Amino acid sequence: MKISLFQSILFGAFGVSALIGLFIFATYTSHSTNNTVGNVVIWGTLPKSGMDAVLTSATKSNTAFKNISYVQKDPETLSTDLATAIATGNAPDLILSSQEDLLSLKKFIVPIPFSSLSVHTFQSSFVGEGNLFTIPGGAGYYGIPFLVDPLVLFSNRSILSSDGIASPPSTWEALTGLVPQVALLTPTQQVTRGLIALGTYDNVHDARGILSALFLQEGVPISSYTGNDILSANLGQANSSTVPPGQAVLGFYTQFADPSKVSYTWNPSLPDSQQAFLSGDLALYLGFASEARFLSAANPNLDFNVTPLPQPATAPVKSAYGLVYAFMIPRGAKNPAGAYQAALLLTSTPGQNVAAAATGLAPATLSALATIPSNDPVAAVSYAEALYANGWLSPTPGDTDRVFSSMIGSVISGGSTLNVALISAENALNPLLR
């Protein structure tokens, strides 16, 4: 197979920068007490306004942050932008992205070995979901966890109180029972007010996270490593005595879009669920904690509450889906030692407090999560959920959406049984994961 000039340059850049990266981390101990960060350019998928606020506030108390800059990147093009930057010698010093982008980025990342960041230090410092950035085979970590954005339940106080509902549901079973009490339907089964947006995919704003949460709550890992450190999809695992958990999740989710079910409250003809909630046409909305500020700004008259993600009534432990953002050092970084120092400063307790306040996300460090900001009801929920948030290593968000959307669409259209839809989704995910 012929290799193009661009590929030759790219592979060469990877090889050289990998050796440089190993040297940097092998000798990092000598730099760890030095607060000189230098110029550090961060490319990230979090909004620029929030990260600029983080760096501005942090610089006021620590001048080591003064030469750190942030560039917001589109998640859909981040990996290709980074590949081009590395090949042309213009790589940033840090990448800030969630686990949903890790598989597409990992080939560009310099591992952080256990000799620089020990297992004990990592486990005792960061939330459990941060383990998604552990490199299989004992090679170290892809990144240092920074912030967590957990999935929460937003509720319209006016709708619930007018229907005599004192508090939002804390279990999925209780939520399902509220549909007849809240949903308003026309004689032709058109939904004029929904309880919650579930059942479809393309007009459910955070459907990828919601489905992920439901699978993980039922013990379906979605993807996992095999003995050869190869990721493989696992949606249809069997259980001889009960309905397979994957099928139970898919059946639960799609029932809300089935006009023949008492739980019918949503359908594909309705608008995006976030907009429906903002317009007062949806009583409950599942979204990420960071959306609270957007909802408040988009409709100042909307009286909403934030509570934890509902749980299965019989679940022995709590689980919620979260986006865990981490700092990763790319190959070709001009200042990898300063980048590592910057990441450590931003994940210190003072740095975490500043970052959480500026972005509306929860800290990823256990020390910062121990103290919830007063008079912040959203933080009270997101900080607690960050402790039990989970995730999975997925293909790129766009690829995952296409697989999940097809799976849901085939069920609600009657084209596939639950089992067939899950098997088809597994078969579609596996080549994307590998």
What's the helix and strand layout?
Blueprint: H1 5-26, E1 40-44, H2 48-61, E2 68-72, H3 78-87, E3 94-98, H4 102-105, H5 119-125, E4 134-135, E5 140-141, E6 144-156, H6 157-162, H7 172-177, H8 179-182, E7 184-185, E8 191-196, H9 207-217, E9 222-225, E10 231-234, H10 245-254, H11 273-278, E11 282-288, H12 291-298, E12 304-308, E13 320-328, H13 336-346, H14 349-359, E14 362-363, H15 366-369, H16 377-388, E15 389-390, H17 397-412, H18 418-433
Parallel strand pairs: 1-2, 1-3, 8-11, 13-15
Antiparallel strand pairs: 3-13, 4-5, 6-11, 6-12, 6-13, 6-14, 7-8, 9-10
Radius of gyration: 23 Å
Shape from CA axes? Answer: globular
CATH topology assignment of the largest domain: D-Maltodextrin-Binding Protein, domain 2
Q: Determine the number of helices (DSSP H or I, runs of at least 4 residues).
A: 18
Query: What does the largest sheet look like?
Result: 11 strands, mixed
How many distinct beta strands? 15
CATH 4th-level superfamily of the largest domain: Periplasmic binding protein-like II
Structural class: alpha/beta
Overall residue-averaged pLDDT value:
90
CATH C-level label of the largest domain: Alpha Beta
Beta-strand content bin: 15-25%
Ranges where pLDDT stays below 50 over 5 or more residues in a row are 1-34
Whole-number tally of structural domains: 2
Distance between the termini: 21 Å
Helix content: 40-55%
CATH architectural grouping of the largest domain: 3-Layer(aba) Sandwich
